[in-house]
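Sugar phosphate isomerase/epimerase
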Amino acid sequence: MSHSTFTRRSALKGLGLAAAASATPRFLSAMALKPSPIRLGIASYTFREFKQPQQLVDFMHQLNLKNINLKDFHLPMGPLDEVKKNADWYRSQGLVITGGGTIYFQKDEDEDIKAKFDYAKAAGFPIIIGSPSHAALERVASFVKKYDIKLAIHNHGPEDKEWPSPQDILAKIGNLDKRVGFCVDVGHTMRAGKDVPETIKEVGSRLYCIHMKDLAEKDKKESQVAVGEGIMPVKQIFETLVKIKYPGCVDLEYEINGKDPMPGVTKSIATERKVLEEMGYSA
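C-alpha cells:
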C-alpha cells in the first residue's frame, strides 16, 4: 500500500482546521454532557480526490474522527488477502470501518454478486452501502443471508431510476430479510420531496446508515453547502435518530469542493458537534 506524505504547508493547514473542528462552544459547560448516542463519521467519497490511504487517515485524525465508510478507491477490490491486509492497516491507524460503498449490483448473476460479498467479507464490512438493480434485488438479498452482512440501500434522488427516495426502497424490500435496509441520504431525500425526519421514522429499525449533507435549496443538487449553512433540519434529524434509538453512524458525505474539501468538512463536523452539545451530548 502506497502512503504519501504531506508537505509542511499542508500539515500546518490541517492542524489549523483540526483546531477549528474541536473548538465547539461549550454551551452546556455548567452541566455534565452525556455520551452521545449518535456516532459521527465520514463517507470516504468526501475525499475522492485524495486516493492515497495515508492522506485519508491524516484527514480523519485532523478531524478527530475514527468512523469511516470506505469507498472502493480507498480500499480497492482485488485479491482477498490484499483487501484484508489493507483494511487491517486502516484499523491499525485507529480507524473503525463501519461499512463500505456505495457498491453497485447491476447484474442479476451469482458470480458478480458473490465477488462483491467476498470483498466485503475480506474487508470486514458489517454493512454494505449498496445500490442493487430491481432485477438483482432478491438475488442480492439471498447473499445477505448467506454472508450475514447487512445491505443498506442508498437512495440517490430524482435522477436515480432505481431508488429516488427511501420510500421507493421501502416499497420493494418489505418482504425481504430484515438485514436488507436503508442508507438514507438526507440531501437526496429532501430533493425527492420527502420530509427527512418523518422518513427516518418511517424506515425505523431497518435504518443502517445515514449520509449527511446540507442544501441551500431543497430541490437543487448543485446547491449543496457545508452542514449548517443550508436548510437541512440537522437538530430535528438528530432528535429523531435518538428517539428511534438508531445504532449506526451519521456519515458526512461532502460532495462539493473535491480538491479542497477540508474547510467545508471541518465546518460541517463542527456544526454537528455543536448541535449534539446543545442536545446535552458530548461529541
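The longest strand covers residues 96-105.
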